[in-house]
Design goal:
The protein is an alpha/beta fold. The chain is built from 9 helices and 6 strands; from the N terminus they run αβαβαβαααααβββα.
Length: about 230
């Protein structure tokens, strides 16, 4: 058995002995159902830990993770044009759990974005190559329109552009679009910078990802509440 697997097993034991007593009552309550605050769509990257970054407890985030935080767009009937897992997660979060917030969160140094920029990284007929098709428009826009932040590496510029594209894909789902237009659901684009540990929120007015800190959080909350 590898040392890393041993570490994971020891981690389970440590949680059972030190953390579980603190959460025992919450888990007993959650066994009867969940009512998360948001659907959080992010990358599978091990360096992105939504519950840690948002300081949330079990039951507060419904997380949908995949390579590159992609959302295959839907047809006019609402059927996914790609993998069904993401569409099923959106439907369950919206129709069953009744979430009022959906966050699409990208991150720096994303391997999927690096592969999307390198035609040799993933053969087009491979599973990864087919999946990366869902960010191809972001690559095109970056090349044609330029970056949101020219100080970033091209890989990170694409990562930010990809968040905006996936928000557009999200709005192709009728169940999301109708609720957004009725102001029953709010959608947001976030971007996590791994090196600094900073989370950023997209400002539609400035077309920039701005750090979320105590000062800016007030303005960000106001924008979200007003739908801007």
């Amino acid at each position: 058995m590898s040392e890393k697997m041993i570490k994971l097993i020891h981690g389970i034991v440590e949680f059972r002995e030190t953390m579980l007593p603190k959460y025992a009552e919450r888990f007993r309550h959650l066994a009867d159902g969940q009512s998360p605050d948001a659907l959080f769509i992010t990358c599978s990257d091990s360096r992105v830990v939504p519950e840690l970054l948002a300081s949330t407890d079990p039951g507060e985030l419904f997380v949908n993770r995949n390579v590159g935080n992609m959302i295959p767009p839907a047809t006019v009937e609402g059927s996914s044009t790609g993998d069904l897992s993401e569409a099923a997660g959106i439907e369950f979060a919206v129709n069953v759990l009744g979430v009022e917030n959906i966050i699409v969160c990208g991150h720096s140094e994303c391997g999927a974005m690096r592969a999307a920029l390198d035609p040799t990284a993933a053969p087009k007929d491979s599973n990864l190559g087919k999946w990366l098709h869902h960010c191809a428009s972001a690559v095109f826009r970056l090349q044609q329109e330029g970056p949101l932040d020219s100080t970033l590496t091209v890989q990170n510029q694409l990562s930010q552009m990809n968040v905006l594209l996936q928000l557009e894909h999200l709005m192709t789902y009728p169940i999301v679009r109708e609720r957004v237009e009725a102001k029953k659901i709010r959608i947001c684009g976030w971007w996590f910078e791994i090196r600094s540990g900073e989370m950023h929120a997209f400002n539609r007015q400035t077309r920039k990802f701005e750090p979320i800190d105590r000062e800016t959080s007030v303005a960000i909350i106001e924008r979200i509440a007003s739908g801007r």
